[in-house]
């Protein structure tokens, strides 16, 4: 058996995008010893580096209006406690970026007296990297170690509390295990499980799968935003089956609205010590989001996770990491390193299954077919792996993608309507009677336990007519409908 390399620390942050960097910086500012890791090399593209640079802006006078816009855009499915935290935290998040040296153009309100967006002033390819560099520079002098080329595989849990994280060093080909009572998942979304996506390589929902395996609740995994030609959304809904092949050649997966269920501390229930920040977390936006709100959310929830992990540091007892958990985790890493099958084809296969069955043109029949196909390939997963850097990363991803794809499919079967960016060609209308609910999945002894849970409506309780479309990419114009307010 391979002997794992052991590292002791207070907080491990998985992900070096905007959410992870902000969580790491904040926890370190609170006095924690932090490791912040990424499976990709230093300066490799992430969604954050790819971002166009629009960030939600509001001030005191416009935050109630922002609240309304976020809730309405999400078709009333968003958790209003989380939205409340979001709108109150926007000015502070932007102020923090300014302290770190980020420069913005003048705020661009959507209209007189409205919230809107600001855009960072350094533009061009990969301008999000500049944002990360500034947070990185802010981390100097704190107890933060950044490690690249380290793929997280599983969160280790003892008696309902986090006690560590198992990872694979891709270069040294070795298990690396963190003994840490707080883990922040900031692994981004899962749009990379689809064959067509604008997300960079590696956006495969790893944090969602790890949280699931650890026993955390996942919320609204079916809600995924697709960039799609406006003019064709009506075709998807009216003639999806008939035009299926043609429609499948259009669009791309863009953003996961669902993910790890968190509370206003960014902590995931029911586990203690597990936080989720940025796109990996779900429940804030509901069925669609405003342009600019994803980056703002990363900064806000990252800060929240780091703050609370830092606060818990002197308050809570650490849970012990038992030797048998370490040995079992190292064993699983060894299985991947000893795998004989190159994982590339399986990686592609899952992406194809997801696009055809769970993508923008989906019906109950296509989702059921996707589940059957995922089932068929499941036995092959155990054999894939290898000793080469790329093979190891892809083998980790294949395992995580397969889990995420299955959960997305199961949640999609449960939501029988069309709302925001969630389109079902066989249920083309919103259904306020039966579908105003959250879909929560949890790992149970019997497999996947699915429940339908009441929505958190703490401020707005009269749903408006839901829009159909991708939110940040606009909405479908329906007959007799006024142009939606700009957002
Ligand atoms: C083309 C494009 C343009 C966009 N433009 C905007 C915009 O203008 N405004 C806006 O608000 N939003 C925008 N978005 C959305 C926004 O960029 C993302 O939602 C956001 O950046 C996600 O940040 P994150 O920190 O959650 O994750 P990411 O930036 O995706 O970072 C994830 C990190 O986790 C690491 N990771 C993943 N899995 C593992 C693992 N198993 N082990 C170790 N590390 C792992 C990755 O290596 C990476 O470091 C855009 C998205 C895209 C794709």
CATH topology of the largest domain: FAD/NAD(P)-binding domain
Question: What Rg, in angstroms, do the CA atoms define?
Answer: 21 Å
Proportion of helical residues: 25-40%
Shape: globular
Number of helices: 13
Report the top-level CATH class of the largest domain. Answer: Alpha Beta
* Attached small molecules: flavin-adenine dinucleotide
- What is the CA–CA distance across the termini? 56 Å
Instruction: Classify the secondary structure makeup into a structural class.
Output: alpha/beta
What report would you give on this structure?
This protein has 487 residues and is α/β, with parallel strands linked by helices. It is built from 13 helices and 21 strands. The termini are far apart. The protein has a five-stranded parallel sheet with strand order 7-3-2-11-16, with helices on one face. α6 (206-214) packs across α13 (389-414). β5 and β6 form a beta hairpin. It is globular, with a radius of gyration of 21 Å. It has helices at residues 18-29, 47-50, 63-73, 80-99, 128-138, 206-214, 230-239, 244-248, 293-313, 323-338, 344-358, 364-381, 389-414, and strands at 5-8, 11-14, 34-38, 54-57, 108-109, 116-119, 144-148, 150-158, 161-169, 174-179, 182-185, 218-219, 224-227, 252-256, 259-261, 274-276, 281-282, 438-444, 447-453, 469-471, 474-475. The protein folds into two domains: 5-313, 3-Layer(bba) Sandwich (FAD/NAD(P)-binding domain); 323-428, Fumarate reductase/succinate dehydrogenase flavoprotein-like, C-terminal domain (Methane Monooxygenase Hydroxylase, Chain G, domain 1, Up-down Bundle), CATH 1.20.58.100. The structure holds flavin-adenine dinucleotide (FAD). Flavin-adenine dinucleotide is lined by residues 14-20, 37-40, 46-48, 50-55, 151-152, 186-188, 198-199, 202-203, 206, 255, 278-280, 292-295, 298.
